[in-house]
Design brief:
single chain; alpha+beta; four-stranded mixed beta sheet; globular
């Protein structure tokens, strides 16, 4: 749990442009979520040399890590340095990843967080 005075600072999505779970599904949903939380989106593409290290680092430290990890993975970064892992895509199919996004958008966690954000 973040510190009581912490606030969301950035939403990070780890993805690849070739991945149907990532683009357009998760890319668009990450933008919608970031807008609801009033934070910027950081997009880390695992196939871009300059972004791969940062993507691997956040997944290794806070996500569902394996040497060949699943994408997309989505993280909420807080002003106190805490990082919440919000979502990992599912290998079962794009529809299952879409369902995970739907659950996140309807979650009590998100509803409570939005209520706590300053106006």
């Amino acid at each position: 749990m973040p510190a009581p005075d912490a606030r969301p600072e950035r939403l990070t999505i780890v993805l690849a442009d070739w991945c149907p779970h990532c683009v357009p599904l998760s890319d668009e949903n990450a933008k919608k979520l970031a807008a609801r939380l009033r934070v910027p989106v950081r997009r880390l593409d695992i196939d871009q040399a300059g972004q791969e290290r940062a993507a691997d680092a956040i997944v290794k430290a806070h996500g569902d890590w394996s040497p060949d990890y699943l994408i997309p993975q989505v993280f909420l970064e807080w002003s106190d340095g805490k990082v919440d892992h919000l979502l990992t895509g599912f290998s079962e199919g794009v529809a299952r990843t879409a369902q995970a996004w739907e659950h996140l958008f309807r979650s009590d966690w998100l509803r409570h967080l939005e209520k706590a954000l300053p106006a």
